[in-house]
Write a structure and sequence with these properties.
318 residues; alpha+beta; six-stranded antiparallel sheet; four-stranded parallel sheet
Length: 318
């Protein structure tokens, strides 16, 4: 079988997803070898791949280091799993002298500044929570999210003018808050190769339980209202590749809105794969020049994630 070397960026815990990439590659006649670019080497992904110790995403040398890694290990596909590596992966795919495929698009970086993203939603008429701005009347309750944050870290509930005055409003996206709500994630893939936007996977799931910003129990659901909204949003914004869309459903007003978009594989995207939307196969197909095939029917399933252990020899003592 021909080797297919895949590099995860920040894929430390993506053991199950690595297995799905290996399975999809094998079905296409490839032997997938998984590498993961990390700061440490004793990480769970070692169960299915090889860790390459690298630099922080903020290090100005990281791009050239990754370029070296791609050439040294003959990498064909680069998969970013953390926000601040998405643009780097896209640059690698566009760089002369490096032949890799990355399932991302040019406008992906706009999604990571929550204030800029909210403005983008507003300019395209996308249904989203209303954003509070200085100088307009305040209606509580509000929620404040760090504009460059991720994984639900640093969120502040704003219930009074005193709470609002305590914030540096330039550093937060401040929006209306819905306490009686249900949150959904929609795992998608839009062909990178097709001329027009062609969405080949769009699988909503309920976030039943979350720990540390990552879903631990999720249920895929067929809900036309959610898939229609997400398809419209992806087409309107011209997004391509692996996309994770976060939706919020206000149960009091029955409003369904887009909270945010992550232009990468989400931590819980394995649920969509298990349900029948084979996103790893779509990525591998496109990396080999064949536009991804649209997934057929997928199932409503419950996915419960669990902890497992990967052991390493301790060499440094106490």
């Amino acid at each position: 079988m021909q080797n297919l070397n895949i590099l995860f960026l920040g894929g430390a815990k993506r053991v199950s997803m690595a297995r799905h990439f290996k399975r999809a590659a094998s079905a296409m006649g490839f032997q997938a070898n998984i590498f993961s670019y990390e700061l440490n080497d004793c990480l769970p992904i070692q169960a299915e791949g090889t860790v390459i110790k690298g630099l922080r995403s903020s290090d100005p040398r990281v791009f050239e280091d990754l370029r070296r890694v791609c050439n040294t290990h003959n990498i064909s596909i680069v998969i970013p799993f953390i926000d601040n590596m998405v643009e780097t992966a896209h640059r690698l795919a566009k760089m002369d002298g490096v032949t890799v495929f990355a399932p991302t698009c040019d406008n992906a970086p706009m999604m990571f500044d929550k204030v800029v993203c909210a403005q983008l939603f507003e300019s395209h008429g996308i249904a989203a929570p209303r954003t509070w701005k200085p100088g307009i009347p305040v209606t509580f309750p509000l929620i404040a999210k760090p504009r460059l944050g991720s994984a639900s870290k640093g969120i502040v509930f704003v219930d009074s003018q005193e709470d609002l005055d305590a914030l540096d409003t330039q550093e937060y996206l401040i929006q209306e808050r819905f306490d009686n709500r249900r949150e959904f994630t929609v795992d998608c893939y839009a062909s990178v190769l097709a001329g027009d936007i062609r969405i080949t996977a769009c699988v909503p799931r309920i976030r039943n339980e979350v720990a540390g910003g990552e879903v631990t129990r999720t249920t895929t659901v067929h809900w036309d209202r959610a898939t229609e909204l997400v398809r419209e949003v992806i087409s309107s914004l011209g997004l391509r590749g692996a996309i994770t869309v976060q939706l919020i459903h206000d149960l009091d007003s029955d409003r369904l809105m887009v909270m945010e978009i992550n232009p990468r594989l989400g931590g819980g995207a394995v649920a969509a794969v298990c349900a029948g939307a084979d996103i790893p196969a779509m990525i591998i197909s496109e990396a080999n020049g064949t536009p991804a095939a649209e997934c057929g029917d997928w199932k409503d399933i419950i996915v419960a994630r669990y902890q497992d252990e990967v052991c390493f020899p301790a060499t440094n003592g106490i």
